[in-house]
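To: structure subgroup
Subject: Chain for Friday's discussion

All,

I'm putting the inputs and outputs inline so they're searchable in the archive.
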Amino acid sequence: MWAAHLVSSLGSGVTGLAIPLLAAVTLGASPAAVGLLTAISAVPHVLLSLVAGVLVDRAPQRAVLILTDFGRAVCLGTVPVLGLFDLLSMPILYCVVFLVQAQTVVNDLASASVVPKVLPPEMLTAGNSAISVNSSVAWIAGNGLGGGLVQLVGAVVTVAVDAISYVFSGVLLFFLRAPELAAAKVSGRRGVLRDIKSGLVFVLKDRVLVALCVSSGIGAFAVAIRDASLVLALVRELDFPAVLVGLLAMLAGLGGVAGGLLADWAATRFGFGRSVMVAIAVSAVAIALMAAPFGVASAVAVGVGQFVGGLSGAVYSIGQLTMRQLATPPDMLGRVNAVRRFLVYASFPLGGVVGGFGGGVLGSRSMLIVAALVMAISVIPLVVGKVNKVEGCRPAQTL
């Protein structure tokens, strides 16, 4: 499973750069059309998360992982084929991106539900850390590889690399032999809406799960403001060249690797709850540093902010995911993870709008300070939910 995730993550890192370049350069799309492409990629995460959570809890999860890998390979494979015959267009690219992201929703929820079924509770943090390190390495290597491939063979052919990576990932998953992943685990036959409701009720009855989900939603709002403001702040207000912006972005990936390696230690040393709360506070400081507000060497401040933000973000992501896995019965993991995912992705568009419009009024660097304040606020639900008292494994009861 780890190997499959690494291969597909590297491919996704390549495509994350290749698809926008394909739209802008090869297809000559306008800025508005490229923006719409980005928006479409987020839509399935909002529309389909709750339904996907029910599917993951009902279906054999090994089959779900394999089918969504092969399905994404087919969708992305149409891009180079159509490009070869000069039939590629922006509407087709919109459809491809939507279908790929729809399957990614299902695959991500299945992956988060599989880990607790193949590892004992005491190894969950280490397992989640291994997956997190994959993502950080893919962010660094995938973007670099994607840029080089686009330069050498063009964006259309580069997309084929991601398609091939999903084929390899699906093949590797055939060797995932855990019996509990091969059988369907249907949680009653009450209909999709009633199963969605049961997941929501389970979350609402658990103060820690409520706190984690609400905190994640507020934190995602802060991250969206940051993402909408950072590049403009660096390029237009701090006059950084594009090469420097790219190098600084790589530091976030390096920080993510460091955070993935430290997360298990932090949870063991301080407890899950306290490590997650400290990670949020550090993330807020890191975002503020990216605004370089204190007159220090701006590139140094931004670089430190990127690295520290990547590190604390990884510690937070791994800690809160592990807490959810430990607090949730295996047959409800898909629905519980889906509730959190829905809140996170519903917050992103609003945060992006606030960051964009706020940058026009207050300036992009000022909006980074706003993002830091919002990130700090996201710790409040954890304090109210007394998440700091969560030290380790909590018994999960089936609803």
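Points worth raising on Friday:
The CA atoms of residues 218 and 378 lie 5 Å apart.
The domain at 197-387 is CATH 1.20.1250.20 (Growth Hormone; Chain: A;).

D.
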